[in-house]
Amino acid sequence: MRSVVAALAGALFGLGLMLSGMTDTNRVQGWLDIFGAWDPTLAFVLGGAILPMAVAWRLTRATATPALGTAFPPPPEPKLGRNLVIGSTLFGAGWGLAGLCPGPAMASLAWGGWGGALFLLAMVAGMVATPPLRRRFSSLA
């Protein structure tokens, strides 16, 4: 049951990304181009995502366990560290250059195109390479 709900939620998310135009790299890059051809569409998409999540977070405060899981994950550490700064910088640079982030990259596979597939492969390669690189470079510090 959990896998079915996860697949349906992922399909709904991908459909929402496609309908809102967030798989269109030009639209995403237009959001980031505040001094040029700025496109505010992403602000409405973000607002449309934040409002239902605020309600969901409020509801989960009164719930002891999730409906399809064993426990809620603990809240993340609210500290600013090297990993967060480096990771968010790389994420932002990749998002700005390619106009895709993980969700839209997955959704872009549905309409084909080598650009989205290449981005997705590079993203997965980076995710696979990060843990051993982190171990290697943390031992040098």
TrEMBL record:
Segments traversing the membrane: 41-59, 80-98, 110-129
InterPro entries attached here? DUF6691
Ordered alphabetically, the record's keywords are: Membrane, Transmembrane, Transmembrane helix
Q: Name one Pfam family in it.
A: DUF6691
Establish whether keyword Transmembrane is in the entry: yes
Which protein are we looking at? Answer: YeeE/YedE family protein
Species of provenance: Rhodophyticola porphyridii
